[in-house]
Amino acid sequence: MSEIKFGTDGWRAIIAEQFTFDNVRLVSQAIADYIKAANMEKAGIVIGYDNRFLSEEFAAAAAEVMAGNWIKVYLTPYAVPTPVVAYTVTMKETAGAVMLTASHNPPYYHGIKFIPHYAGPAMPEITNKIMENVKRLQENGDIKIEKAEEAEKTGLIQYVQPQNNYLYHLQKLLDTEAIKKSGLKVVVDPMHGAGIGYLEKFLISLGLEVVTINANRDAFFGGLLPDPSEDNLASLKFKIREHEADLGFALDGDADRLGVIDNRGNYLSPNQILFMLLRHLIKTRKWQGLVARTVATTHMLDLIAQEHKVVVEETPVGFKYIGDLMLRKGAFLGGEESGGLSIRGHVPEKDGILGCLLFLEMIAVEGKSPMDIMEDIFKTYGRLVSRRLD
Questions:
Q1: What is the DSSP string of 312-374?
Q2: pTM over cut 0.85
Q3: CATH number for the domain including 63?
C-alpha cells in the first residue's frame, strides 16, 4: 500500500487504486481520533462532497465512521462547494469538516480534506497529527462504524442544506446595489462541478440576466479538467460572443477557484484578477492593513500596496499559509496565482464564488471593462507579465 499523505490541500489519489472505501474510512477514523484528542467531539462535524464519481457514497462512509465515534455529523444531501462547507463550520460552530473532493484534478482522482474549526485549510501541525493517526491505524487500529440508518434514527447523522445561509452571508460582503444597477449580462460555467446554481441564484435574485453552461453533473467533466484555466474555457468564450454578454465566470470542480473571461473573449489570469481586486478594495472600500500572497503570486500587488501604505506579506505555496495570515494578522485580502482568494469578513478558505462576485462588483462600481481597468493599472504601475503552467 502506498503512503497516505496530506499535501497542500488534503489527500488525493486515483479512485479504486488507492482512493478506496477502506482508505476513506481509515482517514476518517484518523480525523475522528484527532478531534477526540482535541476534546472537540461534542461540537460535531460537517461532511460535504463534490460532483465526482462515488462522492455521495464516500461521504456516507466518512459519516458512518464519525457516527461510530459518537461525533454528530451534519451531512449535506447534495454536492456543495468547498467554501460553502467551510462557511457551514462557522455557522454550526463545529469541530471542523470533512470535504470529499479532488478539486481541479482529473476525473479519475478523488480526495479528502479536513477543514478545522477555524474554517480554513488545515496547517501542517494538524495534518501531521492526522497522518500519525493513519500510520497507527494501519498497524493495529480499530475503525468504528455506525451504520447510517441507525445513526440517522439516533440523530448522530443530520442533514444540513447550507446554500441559502451562505448566499445571505455573501450579500453582506458585497455591494449588491451596485451589482443590481449595473444591468450586466453574465455567462456562468460551473464546469459540471459542485458550484452549479450558486452564482446563478445570487445574480438572478439581483435581476441580472444569466446564461449558464455545463450545469449538469458529469463525473467526466465534459472530457476536460474541471480547472478554469484558459485552455478549458473555449465554450465559455463562445457563449459570451453568442449572447453578447459582458462577462463570463468559471468555477473549478469544488468552486474554490475562479476563471474570468471579458466581453471580448480575453482570459484574465488569477494574477490579474488579484491585483485588480486589490486596487478596487483600496480605492472603493478604503481598506488598509495587510495583504497576503504566496511566493508565486504577482508582485504587482506589492507595487499597488506600496503606494497606499498597505503591507504585503509573502508566504510559501499553499492557501493554508494565506488563511493562517488572515486568521493571525487580519489580512484583508489573501490570494494565490492558482486562482484562490478570500477577503476580510469571510472564511479563511479560498472561494471562487466570492471571487467572481467581487470582480463583478468592481466592474459595476467602476463602470469600465476589465481591460480598461487593467490598462489604468499598467499606466500607473508599469506592466508585469506572468504565466501559469500547471
A1: EEEE-SSHHHHHHHHHHH--SEEE-TTS-EEETTS-SS--HHHHHHHHHHHHHHH-S-HHHHH
A2: yes
A3: 3.40.120.10
